[in-house]
Amino acid sequence: MTHTFYISASYIVAAIVILCLIGWVWLDGRARQRELAELEASGIRRRSARPAPTDGAAL
């Protein structure tokens, strides 16, 4: 066994871990977007969203 094997193995393991983290964050982001869409469809709005005008006046 040479040092090259251990160095290569460590890079491969690090790459796998990073790819798993990227995948996890991507999937979690999709899940949060889906939850936000469901909440907005049910009538719950974000606080940062502008309220709809009630008297027909433009904001």
Automatic annotation (TrEMBL):
Cited NCBIfam families: cytochro_ccmD
Protein name: Heme exporter protein D
Functional note: Required for the export of heme to the periplasm for the biogenesis of c-type cytochromes.
Topology in membrane: Single-pass membrane protein
A Pfam family assignment: CcmD
Compartment annotation: Cell inner membrane
Membership in a protein family: Belongs to the CcmD/CycX/HelD family.
Transmembrane domains' residue ranges: 6-27
Gene Ontology cellular component annotations, sorted alphabetically: plasma membrane
Matches recorded under InterPro entries: Haem_export_protD_CcmD
One BP annotation, GO: cytochrome complex assembly
Keyword terms of this UniProt record: Cell inner membrane, Cell membrane, Cytochrome c-type biogenesis, Membrane, Transmembrane, Transmembrane helix, Transport
Superkingdom: Bacteria
Organism the protein comes from: Aliirhizobium smilacinae
